Protein 1
Amino acid sequence: MEKVAISLAGVEQHRAHFRLGPIDLDIPEGYVTAIIGPNGSGKSSTFRLLLDLSKPDAGQMSILGHPVGQGDDRSWKRQIGYLQEESDYLDNSIRGSEKATFIRKWYAEWDVNLYQDLLRRFEVDDSIKLGKMSKGMRRKFELALVIAHKPKLLLLDEPSSGLDPIAWRSMIDILHRYMEPGDRTILMASHIIDEVRRLADYIVFMARGQILGKYEKDELFERWHVLYVPAANDSDRGKLLTMPGVIEVELAGVGMYRIVSEDAPQTEEALQAAQFTIGSRQAMQLDEILQVLMQRGVYA
Amino acid sequence: MWLPIHLNENSAEPMYHQIEVQLRALIVSGQLTEGTLLPSIREMAQMLKCSVITVRRVYQDLETEGLLRTRQGTGTFVASVQEEDLGRQRTASVIEAVEAAVEAGMRVQLTRQEMEHIMTRVLDDRWKENG
């Protein structure tokens, strides 16, 4: 079996206006896992719990084999790079280089050449005060800062927020290069569909504090399809609904049914066995899949 | 390194299969010669926007077929292709493309006869050009 970089078991957190969990989730080592979900679904809260920045009300977590919330955490936290969602405004008055000097003290593995290289590739000038940097430049600077100590695990909370398209592309490239050694892991939260498409190996859907599912990316796109099926009469709808994988059936124009399937190969087989022809098929996009999963969550 | 591999996400064929067919065709057609170093698994995944899980599967399958070999620490290379494999595998990607064309025809509900007619016409045109 594959090694697990992060594991959450029965993790819950109760707040006056938000309830997270119970969350059971394993993040495999050596892969990019992206959590996607609407704002307020609990992505950032999960990151904070993993880093012991807030405490769960129930459950166990481990990171890189170490239990979270017990004993001296300095040794394993040195192997993590965490990019938080919002920049820390307390840093506004210091220069980038000053922040870097402070950060590198805590990381024995800090690689000054890599840091300089990242700044160059991102076109960031670290002599500028952090508060004076543009939103995009500051984000790029912070990203360089969390990668420069070559962590085994990167936790990225909405990494691309504020990045222009050019900077976004270099971020994607830098993260791919980061993963090249093969034993590194990224867990990222994102609601940028294209970012997830380009980076992720696994996709976790999250909404309202719950995990809706974890999928291998390519398998997800292979299985979740919309099929258009010409059908003669209304009684066919019931027949279609009972087929394996079928989630939704609706009339799309005259005599044409639109079928949402979470297991297209099986659905197609059943359709063919029942003498239906398949008019066309279309892979679903992540946002459409998320929407279907969320609707199902409501009625489940 | 850029490779002419194109994925159709709306196809019923799984992604690993699409990549496998096209990569195999590149090797057996001689476009990728023996000893060529292929992109790393992560680079290939980035290029094709698919997961490393899929690319690893493709590399493993083609290695089992003897078309690729992996050297620990250096990467994945194109192996030598046996003559008898060439003919058989050359046609595999063509069959795939024709199947996609037939599927396009079925979507607009062409009859078998109409499709045969189109196929003949395209072939005739092409051979006239070249002839």
Note: Chain B touches chain A through 20 residues (CB under 8 Å).
Protein 2
Amino acid sequence: MNSIEEQLWNYIDGTSNPEEQKAISLLIEQDEVYRKKYKELLALNAEFSAMELDEPPMAFTYNVMESIRNEHAMQPLKARVDQRIVKGIGLFFGLIISAILIFALASVHWSAPVSGGNTTHFVIPNITKFLSSPIMESFMFFDIVLALYILDVYLRKKNLTKTYTSVQSGGQQK
Amino acid sequence: MQSKLSDTDLIEQTLAGDQSAYAALIKRHQRFVFTLAMRFAKSREDAEEIAQDCFIKAYRSLESFQRQAKFTTWLYSIVYTTAMTTLRKKRIATDSIDDEETFIQVENKPSGYDENNVENKSRSFYLNQAIDQLLPDDATIITLFYKGEQSLEEIAQTMGIEANTVKVKLFRARQRLKDKLERNLKHEAKELI
């Protein structure tokens, strides 16, 4: 059985079930002890609710943001590269290797006679016919995009290092 | 403009690369986070360090924040864990401390109390003084319940305990706070006489 105080706190907080709420409400109306205690706890509840929050220093937000900026600048570049790009490049090269393998295997004359000097006969593909094809053009286009991306990453890295150095030297000057 | 945005909107903007959105989020919650940190720390400097650490940790793992939950519940759980870790590191016993020991510990806390300026002291001063004398867990539950607008379930989530345990702890914490408040006021009345 809960104490009077516990029952009343549950009633004030609204954590007791509807039947209990009703019963306690009736007790407050009829019982002087309950009524007195209820008033006391209600006053305490109001006092606790009016509790004041502590005020952090004025530069708190600035300090946190400065720490985040510094941490961001110090982060190694490889940790900032989007993993989807890395996976995409991996997939691209995987597909090229698979395509070459399939092409090589497809060009093998499996029906060639086993007896005799030559066991298999490879037909070396004529690569020059692919050089002017749309596949080659798109491959070259992809290479250019990749090169531009690497250049962009390099320039960003350079810029970040420059910013970080100036932030560090600025901090030391202070 | 940013003050009108919800926490979730500010999080989305932060994740999109807008750092000023995160600054707005800090401004919105810094007072409560700092107050929670004060419940564990011995000084304002320590509390500032804990609060700062919490916001940096929250920024780092903002992507992992589940939008279904309240941002404040998630943030306060970071504050609670960080503050507890800091306490453990500093080897301050948080449990099994009897009232007398707690009283001695908190008496060293800078409270801004000026004996010559007794008349300026308000009821809220005594309340804050009494909260400072509580154990960190009790003070945290009281603060989360009354100022953090957290339900018993949310407090349970923050502190990593059952909601029923929170209910019992809240009841005990309120009793202790009431006792401390009365004791401090009696002590003050004696001083005045």
Note: The radius of gyration of chain A is 38 Å.
